[in-house]
Specification:
Layout (H helix, E strand, L loop, with lengths): L10 E5 L6 H13 L5 E6 L17 H6 L2 E2 L12 H17 L3 E6 L2 H9 L9 H14 L1 H11 L1 H5 L6 H14 L3 H7 L13 E6 L4 H18 L1 H9 L16 H8 L5 H24 L5 E3 L4 H18 L1
Parallel strand pairs: 1-4, 1-5, 2-3, 2-4, 5-6
Helix pairs in contact: 1-14, 3-4, 5-6, 5-8, 6-8, 10-13, 11-12, 12-13
């Protein structure tokens, strides 16, 4: 049932896999709206951009871009601080109300689709982890191996284990954390307070523009170009600097982000430089694949091929038309 007077109604979002051009499209839309005397403020929907000091590896907007256009959801946590999809959903509702109260127009831009689901559907209330529990499970993984921890998850929570690949260490760790903190399987807690099964549902009217290239090679080339640029800009040096902080270590969720995790392995001499580059590229391609798979389960989205300049121009026109009609 449609929620009446929802402050999120008519929300415009630009989503897509990593390196698909979401930020570029949003900035072009900002320029187009300005010609009609409309000020757009951008809400970042990216689980890595929230962290201070993680600039190069997250392809964070430049200081000049942040100054030119108001952004929300960027640089709001230190890497050792917790931030979640539920926190994002809470924050977005406040940001949207504040933006609209200023007479401006909010757009959501990003590729962390779990955040979108939390915003549109809500999430089950699972216990928040602690650094102590996370470190304890990480120590067990180092001692016994992740294969053993995956088998342990199969024993205590077979339903969750069945939907996770053995190599998804972050989600395996989270499921074990939930079990250790609550004494109950994550799957049981979710069933007690289920959220919508369909990724396409949302409790507010919205327009979801999804940048999905028809040619996967085009996206892979952009991923490689961007990763190369990150290396040139000093990704390794950025990670070195982060690790000098006493509260930052490799087990933090922030440090498990694509690029950072591989850089840490390189700095720990687990990879050669060539292996690090290949691992970073492979992780980026895998991330893009997961994002596209998620998006394809959302039939209401408007699919745009970002390699098609004419399609992008039409998308800007259509988004601007939506803004003019709904502001």
């Amino acid at each position: 049932m449609q929620v009446q007077n929802n402050p999120l109604d008519q929300l415009l979002a630009i989503v897509g896999p990593t390196a698909s051009g979401k930020s570029s499209l949003s900035m072009l839309l900002v320029q187009a709206a300005a010609e009609h005397h409309i000020t757009i403020e951008i809400i970042s929907m990216d689980s890595a951009l929230v962290y201070r000091g993680m600039n190069i590896g997250t392809a964070k907007p430049t200081p000049a871009e942040l100054k030119r256009v108001s952004h929300h959801g960027i640089n709001i946590r230190d890497p050792w601080e917790h931030y979640s999809a539920a926190a994002f959903a809470h924050d977005v509702k406040q940001w949207v109300q504040e933006i609209r109260a200023r007479g401006n127009y909010p757009i959501v831009v990003g590729g962390t689709m779990l955040y979108w689901r939390a915003l549109g559907q809500g999430l089950s209330q699972l216990p928040a982890t602690t650094q102590e529990v996370r470190l304890r499970i990480e120590s067990r993984a180092q001692l016994l191996g992740w294969d053993t921890l995956y088998r342990q998850l199969q024993e205590v929570d077979p339903m969750t284990a069945a939907r996770l690949p053995p190599g998804d260490h972050q989600r395996i760790s989270r499921a074990l954390e939930v079990f250790e903190l609550s004494g109950e399987p994550m799957s049981s807690l979710i069933q007690q307070e289920p959220y919508a099964i369909s990724r396409n549902d949302a409790n507010f009217e919205h327009v979801l523009v999804s940048l999905e290239p028809n040619n996967r090679a085009w996206l892979h080339e952009r991923i490689e170009q961007r990763f190369t640029q990150m290396l040139t800009l000093g990704l390794i040096e950025e990670v070195k600097t982060l690790l000098t902080h006493p509260q930052i270590n490799a087990t933090l969720p922030a440090m498990r982000a694509v690029g950072y995790r591989q850089a840490i392995s390189y700095l720990n001499q687990e990879y050669s430089y060539a292996q690090f580059v290949e691992a970073g590229l492979a992780a980026s391609r895998q991330l893009a694949k997961r994002q596209i798979t998620w998006l394809r389960a959302m039939p209401s989205r408007r699919v745009v091929d970002p390699s098609d300049q004419q399609a992008l121009a039409q998308t800007i026109h259509d988004c601007l038309d939506h803004i003019l009609k709904t502001r």
